[in-house]
Amino acid sequence: MLAALVEANICIKGYPAHKCLLPGEAHSKPGVNKGIGALTQKEISALVESLRAGTMRIIRFPSKDRGTYKLDYSENVILTLFIAAVIASQKPVIEGEAPPPEWPHPGARRMFLNGHTDHNGLPRIKSSTATTKVKKGIKA
Q: What is the dihedral of CA 103, 104, 108, 113, to 10 degrees?
């Protein structure tokens, strides 16, 4: 799927990576990846919810900063610097949305064209004192 996204000059931002698997991942090591069939109903619901809410977006690669790059020994191809960075796995194809405050990693998950993932995406959402305050009981 990652190669298909790059071929179409698109990337995904705001993927709910803290709620569901990234493309190509499986719940168990010996498990065979079956695409969306490997996701649980809860994970599919998280994807649908993100699309409906507009937090997950499909974005075309920027077309500025054009340059010529040699992809193999015989051919020069004009690409954007952004696409070249994606192909070199320096920029992610899929970026996760900012995870909740209790997320154990410093940031959101990102997935690169070579299949590598990291947790260096958007930082965790800071917890609000309004949401963490507990009302004190009234003494009689």
A: -140
